[in-house]
Known about the structure:
NADH Oxidase, 2 domains, seven-stranded antiparallel β-sheet, 18 helices, about 20% strand
Amino acid sequence: MKPTIAEFYHESTKYTPEGLGSQRSKIDWDHPPLPFKSYTTGKRVDLAQYLPFAELDRTEDIQEEWEALTFEERAMADLSHLLYFSNGVTAVMPYPEREFLMRAAPSAGGLYPTEIYVAASNYPGLPDGLYNYQVRQHELIGFWEGDVKRRLGEACFDHPALEASNLVVILTGVFFRSSWRYQDRAYRRILLDTGHVWGNTAMIAPYFGREAFPIGGFRDDAMADLLFLERHVEAGLLLIALPRKEALSPELREAPAVLPSAARRDSRHAPEGERLWELHDASRIDARPAVTAVPPAVNARPAFGHAEGLEAPPMAWNDALGDTIVLRRSTRAYSGREISREQLAQMLDFAYRPQDSDDPRIALGPHLLAPELLETYVAVNAVQGLDPGCYHYDPVRNELRQARFTGLAMEIEYLCLGQELGGKAAAVVFHTTNLPRAVERYGERAYRYVHMDAGHLGERLSIAAMRLGLGASGIGGFFDDRANEMLGIPPEEATVYITTLGQPANS
């Protein structure tokens, strides 16, 4: 059987030791893309004026000023903070060519391909319409006014979360920002980066009385028309409906986050430089799919060894989530020192089992797109009370089952393109998916879902690590086949994302 487009894309964009050098030689280092979108016209809405109120644990003086704000001003302050914690500028690094603005969410190569749009409908203080988040100035620019809820409903097949929401965040990918450096493999990076931003939005929304519901199934052409996106330049990837708690209903909670694209399609083996677009175009939805009952995809796994339970007390947040997001940085080097078993358990709990949190706001979520498609493995290098080796993680049973009983540090370092991050991390989390089964279930669009879900989980792991005083760094570039060999999984099981966790070198 010929490979599907997603299978061909994944295979043809794998990194190998032989091909990595030639890919780097194609980068035009003198002409990097700008990580911002600009508009020449549109109504500007200042959000920066509300940043002094951004601390979730406000001082007494700030609290007094907050209480003096009108209802509309408080609503605009909430929106300002929501966008800031999702992907606002958290630090400015001066460079001779131009300053580098660091964001709340990590991005491969610091290229920030994810754009944020806001759809407002009866939102206090904001006229109905569509807005782009201008991250440099921390402002909105309105580019369309009107009944956006109706048009979103048409594009998303009347998803009930939209009807319940007066605020919807739309995430798009500007493809050249990432493909400039990563060529066709950029699609993976863009989806992971979008998952990072979504992860922040979902984590912080409950602090403003909202819950984040992702919508991955929508009519792509309708979304492009709505946002005035140029084909093969920028494309819609995810909507996040943000209903208030009082608007939640059983119907909303049961509504599907995803829809399948067209049935399996054989790849035409697009030439290099066009593979990204072949997959993206093949994953589009043009009309409401005929959804039939399909049993969940279950990966055939080898028998695993002894189960290690991961019971641990919940992390103490004390209203520090916002500060943790702002202070998050990707770790550049690890010391190689151990972390505790409890710390590993707490990070996995926060990512996969937030219902165990002692903070009811953190206990909301994550609402993932297609969690049944992802598998999680943890490579242990230096965790107190756990033997070095590779473990399969089962979040339902909350346990690790050892699959390989051996030290893997050098192997992980090599497959992470020789980065010491892999070898000196205390633990390394691998997300994988059985790609043929994923495509069978959701069509080529499954590739979007698994990568955005993995990015979301990776961001949650990173934020949990920061809260514990540890380091974290996501790795989207690795020798794919070597990762499979190390994990002991078959070729059809695609490695999607790697997150390293450990003691920072300077701690």
